[in-house]
Amino acid sequence: MKRTDTMSATNILPGTTVSAGRVLAVCVGNGLEFYDFLAYTLFAVYIGRAFFPTRSGSLSLLLSVATFGIGFVTRPLGALIIGRLGDRVGRRPAMLLSFLMMGAGTLTLAVTPRYASIGLAAPALIILSRLVQGFALGGDVGPTTAYMVEMAPPTRRGLYGSLQFTTQQVATLAVAVLGVALTRALSPAALSDWGWRVAFLFGVMIVLLGLRLRSSLPETLQPQVSRAGVVAESPRLRPLVPVIACVALLLASGTIGVYILNDLTTYALTTLHIAPTRAFLISVVTSLSQALGYLLSGWLSDRAGRRPLIRAGVLLTALLVLPTFVLIGHHPAALLLYSAVGLLAACSGVMGGPILVALTEAVPPAVRSGVVALTYAVAIAVFGGSTQFVITWLIQRTGSPLAPAWYWTVALLAGLAAALYIPETAPGRARPAAAVSGETPEAFWQQPGP
Q1: Residue 2, domain member (yes or no)
Q2: What is the mean pLDDT of residues 391-418?
Q3: Is 180 inside any structural domain?
Q4: CATH no. for residue 351?
Q5: Cβ pair 141, 413 in contact under 8 A
Q6: 3-class DSSP state for residue 331?
Q7: Partners of 3 in the β-ladder
Q8: Which of 74, 112, 194, 372 is the most buried (most CB within 10 A)?
Q9: How far is it, in rounded angstroms, from Cα 242 to Cα 358?
C-alpha cells in the first residue's frame, strides 16, 4: 500500500459542490463527442458515395455502415486505457484526452478527399478516423458518468447520471436539425458532393469550446485514505460480476434500439423511399423523444428507484417495436410516422436513463471509471457497432422491412431477463447503501430478488 499525505487542492468532495457551469461543461463536452461520432450515421448514404463508390448503391451503403461499425472496434481499448486513467490520474485529465482525440478523428473525416481524387487512400483515412474516434469515445463514457454521479447530491444521482444518455441524444438532435437545414438549403447534388462535410466541420469548430469548458472543471476523484494515512487497495471485482452482467445485457438491448432509431433516416431513404427532408425529421423526433425519456426516467428513478423504471421501460419498448414498424411501413403519413417513432423512442429512453447510474453506484470509486467505461464499451462495440450492418444485411437478405423490428425485439427479451434481476442501488432503497459512498459491494446480491 502507498502512503499519501496530501490531496490536490482542485479536488471537490462528491455531492457537495455543484454548479450549473460544471454540469454544463460535462454535458457540452459529452454532447460534442457524440455529435462527432454519430454524425456519420445520418450521412452514411452520402459518405458511401464519396468514399466507397460501387456499381451497386446497396453495396456502397453496406460498405459505409460497415466502416461506421469499425469505429466500435477500438472502443474497448479506449475504455481500458482512458477509463483506467480516470481512476489513476483523475476524471478531468481522462475527459480532456478523449476530447482531443475525438476532434482529431473528426477533422480527418471532414477534410479527406473523395475516392475519385486519391483512390484507396480515401477509404483508408476514413477507417483510421473512425478507429481514433472509437478509441476516444470508448474512454470518455466512464470518466464523464463517474464525474456526474460523484458531483451530484445523493438524491439527484439518477437525474445527473441520466444526462450521459440525454446529451448523446441532444447531440443526435443537433446533427438531425443540421441535416434538415442542409437538405432544405442545398440541392441533392450539392448535399452529396460536399454538403454533408459541413456537419463534421461544425463539430471541429466547437471543439475549442469544449476543451475550455472541461479544462475548468475541478476533480472529483478522491483517494480512499484510511485512518493510518494509507491509500486503500483496489476493491475486488468478483462480487460485481452479476451486476456488470445485468447492465451489459441491458446496454446491449438498449444500444441496438438506439442505433436502429438513429438508422431510421437511412431506413426511410432506402427502404421506405421517403424524401430526404422528411427522413431527417424522423431523427429530430426520435432524438428529442429519447432525450426526454432519459431525463424523465432519471428524475423518477431518484424517487421510485432504478429497478422499477428499467423494468417498465424495457417492457413497454418490447411491446411497441413491432407494431410501430408495421405502422410506418404501411402508413408512412407524416403525422402518424412521427408520432409512432416518437413514442417508441421515448419508451426506449425510459429504460435507458437509470442503467449506467445503477452500475456507477454499485462500483467503488477506485475502479469506477474503468469498470463503467469497459462495460459500456464492450456492450456497445459488440452490439451497437454491428447494428447498422446487421439490419442492412437482414433487409437485403429477407426483403422484409420488419427485419430491424424483429432483431430489436429479440434483444429486448434478453434485456427484460436482466431487468428482473438487476439490484436496486438508489440511496435509501438499496441494501446496503450504494457503493458510490465508498462501501464495499459484496452485499449487493444479498438483497431480495424481484
Answers
A1: no
A2: 88
A3: yes
A4: 1.20.1250.20
A5: no
A6: coil
A7: 230
A8: 372
A9: 13
Amino acid residing at 103: G
Give Cα separations from 406 to 41, 62, 95, 187, 445 (angstroms).
21, 20, 37, 36, 33
Give the other-Cβ count within 10 Å of 427's Cβ.
Answer: 18
DSSP structure string for 109-125: HHHPPPHHHHTTHHHHH
Q: Residue 373: what residue type? A: A
C-alpha cell at 274: 421517403
Summary mean pLDDT of the chain: 80
Q: Which of 69, 39, 51, 58 is nearest to 394 (CA)?
A: 58
State the alpha helices, DSSP H only, in 263-305. 264-270, 276-304
Q: Which three cell numbers stand for residue 423?
A: 439490484
- Collect all residues with Cβ–Cβ distance below 8 Å to 225 and sequence separation of at least 6: 4, 231, 232
Burial of 220 (0-12, 13-18, 19+ CB in 10 A): buried
Q: CB of 399 within 8 A of CB of 379? A: no
Phi then psi for 19, rounded to 5 degrees?
-135, 155
Report how far residue 137's alpha carbon sits from residue 153's, in angstroms, rounded to the nearest whole number. Answer: 26
**Comparing C-alpha atoms, which of 404, 109, 106, 413 is closest to residue 263?**
404
**Number of structural domains the chain divides into:** 1
Q: Find residue 11's DSSP bridge partners.
A: 219
Q: For residue 193, what is its C-alpha cell?
A: 458532393
Provide the domain limits for residue 391: 20-211+237-446
Q: Which residue has the cell 487497495?
A: 233
- Region of 90 (left: φ > 0; alpha: ψ -120 to 50; beta: rest) is left
Report CA-CA distances (Å) from 126 to 164, 238, 331, 431.
27, 39, 37, 49
The pLDDT value recorded for residue 59 is 65
Backbone angles phi, psi at 11, to 5 degrees: -70, 145
pLDDT digits (tens, 9 = 90+) for 210-269: 788 788 788 888 765 444 444 455 667 777 888 899 999 999 998 898 888 877 777 777
Residue 14: inside a domain? no
On the CB side of 103, how many CA atoms lie within 13 Å of its CA?
16
Q: Is residue 157 part of a domain?
A: yes
